TrEMBL record:
GO MF term list: cysteine-type deubiquitinase activity; zinc ion binding
Catalysis: reaction(s): Thiol-dependent hydrolysis of ester, thioester, amide, peptide and isopeptide bonds formed by the C-terminal Gly of ubiquitin (a 76-residue protein attached to proteins as an intracellular targeting signal)
Subcellular location(s) of the protein: Nucleus
One Pfam family named in its UniProt record: zf-UBP
UniProt record similarity statement: Belongs to the peptidase C19 family. UBP8 subfamily.
Class of this enzyme: hydrolase
Protein name per its UniProtKB record: Ubiquitin carboxyl-terminal hydrolase
Keywords per UniProt: Hydrolase, Metal-binding, Nucleus, Protease, Signal, Thiol protease, Transcription, Transcription regulation, Ubl conjugation pathway, Zinc, Zinc-finger
Taxonomic source organism: Denticeps clupeoides
Length: 579
């Protein structure tokens, strides 16, 4: 699968990246990878078509069976370690275990094709490459496979991620930029591109910490760096255009702190309740920012879905929107009334608040532990989620008319997750505001690096019997696993405080963003922090092989044209799987 919109902004970044402190992977000529010519000998087109027909796109049941039977690593016999096929001989090898790399080094066979996405990898350039002739063949064979399966592009991809599937043709200006910038940069695991401080413009730490979290949200980053936004309003008043510019600034390679004055002005314009220099709430800013971005993304959405005019398909909804199921059960006839509402985040109560709280552990019946508002032992994020999804008796003062027995009866209400978002945002209710009380709850809540949301799904309701939580010791469902990538913290009191953010840059590499200052942090620093907002990203699963979306996309973070097609395809495939 290749996607193909040309992007001037990406090419401009090549010039900026030239001065960044990155390792040089290779030097390409204006035509792209120079090593492709060694493959283009007699019958190369026929051989490439055969590989795509039999082992990549698999348009018929017979070819799919052949692929399942034949596509195993010739060294270890594995099926699911990102298999690649050598273009010079009959050899399949694991990419993750480097078996295809060993073959390439031994045989000097420099090119291989990814059997999952169809991308061509050059082992000399150490990157996926773009070649016009090869892409045309890949497109043709892909379309043939779709036609055999009776599929169309419209059916395969949501309108929000669908693009014109035509071959990318560089403009004269793009060709000129490529000629003047032949060097391609390889991202290293220690690369700090994307890390940039933000100047505090006067009590704007609440904005800076959320901007850091959003700019390090992998799929949102790839959307903007792929120049996917199509503005239908004046650019100087569009928050999405400003966010697009902000991403360009963050990933330009510059190290000096950025001054987000235009962003602040647009926030004040479109979310007037946040205007002014007084201290604001970071969670409130997150929701306001998502709302304005959602409203300004109309041009990227192609409108509403034709079969569901109430469903928005913009990038914000595709990444952040989940579905919350509410089941109200009549205590007399046991009839159930179900509604499903969209959500961008989940706000969770804390022990010590005025709202009754208790952890539900295996074997507990839901009664309060050690008093109504307190709990023994440490509190975890999972405890908060268990409480959020436990059945709640509404009481005699809140009788609801049952749709089954048509009478007003007492009932119970239970919230569960019907549909999970790609990025799950959790907010702890640390600030209490009432007529008699204004305070901050400083209870420490431990949170995991990896989170399994399976117990809180609507499909897992059978595991909750009579209000009890049944621990699932050995869950076989890998589709609801998440990985932490950002933590927003608040230090200080309700009246006077400061926001900072921990963000995950690479695997096990964390950084603390404190306005203009960026410092390296340990995992212990992150897990020991108080926590106010947590951002988790869906862990992508291919068969039995689990791949974190964060690292899958981050493997080629730099906006490189040869990789741009593949990033968008992984992006589209992920959204299609989750929505």
């Amino acid at each position: 699968n290749y996607s193909s919109s040309s992007s001037s902004s990406l090419l401009l970044l090549f010039v900026l990246l030239r001065d960044a402190h990155l390792d040089v992977a290779c030097v390409m000529g204006p035509a792209g990878c120079a090593h492709v010519n060694g493959f283009k000998v007699d019958n190369w087109k026929q051989n490439l078509r055969l590989i795509y027909q039999c082992f990549v796109w698999s348009g018929t049941a017979e070819s799919r069976k052949r692929k399942a039977k034949s596509c195993i690593c010739h060294m270890c016999g594995a099926h699911l370690s990102r298999l690649h096929s050598c273009l010079y001989c009959v050899f399949f090898g694991c990419f993750t275990k480097k078996h295809i790399h060993e073959h390439a080094k031994t045989k000097r066979h420099n090119l291989a094709v990814d059997l999952l996405y169809g991308g061509i990898y050059c082992f000399v350039c150490q990157d996926y490459i773009y070649d016009k002739d090869m892409e045309l063949i890949a497109k043709e064979e892909q379309r043939k496979a779709w036609k055999l399966q009776g599929k169309t592009i419209n059916a395969l991809f949501p309108s929000g991620v669908r693009e014109r599937y035509s071959t990318w043709e560089p403009t004269k200006r793009e060709l000129e930029l490529l000629r003047h910038n032949p060097k391609r940069r390889k991202m290293t695991t220690n690369c700090t591109i994307g890390l940039r401080g933000l100047i505090n413009l006067g009590n704007t730490c609440f904005m800076n910490c959320i901007v850091q979290a959003l700019t390090h949200t992998p799929l949102l980053r790839d959307f903007f760096l792929s120049d996917r936004h199509k503005c239908e309003m004046q650019a100087n008043s569009c928050l999405v255009c400003e966010m697009s510019q902000l991403f360009q600034e963050f990933y330009s390679g510059h190290r000096s702190p950025h001054i987000p004055f235009r962003l602040l002005h647009l926030v004040w314009t479109h979310a007037r309740h946040l205007a002014g220099y007084e201290q604001q709430d970071a969670h409130e800013f997150l929701i306001a920012a998502l709302d304005v971005l959602h409203r300004h993304c109309k041009g990227d959405d192609n409108g509403k879905k034709a079969n569901n005019p109430n469903h928005c398909n913009c990038i914000i909804d595709q990444i952040f929107t989940g579905g919350l199921q509410s089941d109200v059960t009549c205590q007399v006839c046991h009839g159930v009334s179900t509604t499903i509402d969209p959500f961008w985040d989940i706000s969770l109560d804390l022990p010590g608040s005025s709202t009754p709280f208790w952890p539900l552990s295996p074997g507990f019946d839901g009664s309060a532990v050690n008093g109504e508002n307190h709990t023994t032992g440490a509190t975890t994020l999972t405890d908060c989620l268990r409480r959020f999804t436990r059945p709640e008796h509404l009481g005699s003062g809140a009788k609801i008319k049952c749709s089954s027995c048509h009478s007003y009866q007492e009932s119970t209400k239970q919230l569960t997750m019907k549909r999970l978002p790609i990025v799950a945002c959790f907010h702890l209710k640390r600030f209490e505001h009432s007529a008699k009380l204004r305070r901050k709850i400083t209870t420490y809540v431990s949170f995991p690096l990896e989170l399994d949301m399976t117990p809180f799904m609507a499909s897992s309701k059978e595991s909750r019997m009579n209000g009890q939580y049944q621990q699932q010791v050995d869950s076989l469902n890998n589709d609801n696993k998440y990985s932490l990538f950002a933590v927003v913290n608040h230090q200080g009191t309700l009246e006077s405080g400061h926001y900072t953010t921990f963000i995950r840059q690479h695997k096990d590499q964390w950084f603390k963003c404190d306005d203009a200052i960026i410092t390296k942090a340990s995992i212990k620093d992150v897990l020991d922090s108080e926590g106010y907002n947590y951002l988790y990203i869906y862990t992508y699963t291919v068969g039995m092989e689990s791949i974190q979306t964060f690292f899958l996309i981050t493997a080629h973070t730099a906006p490189i044209l040869t990789e741009k097609h593949r990033i968008v395809d992984i992006f589209a495939d992920l959204l299609t799987k989750k929505i």
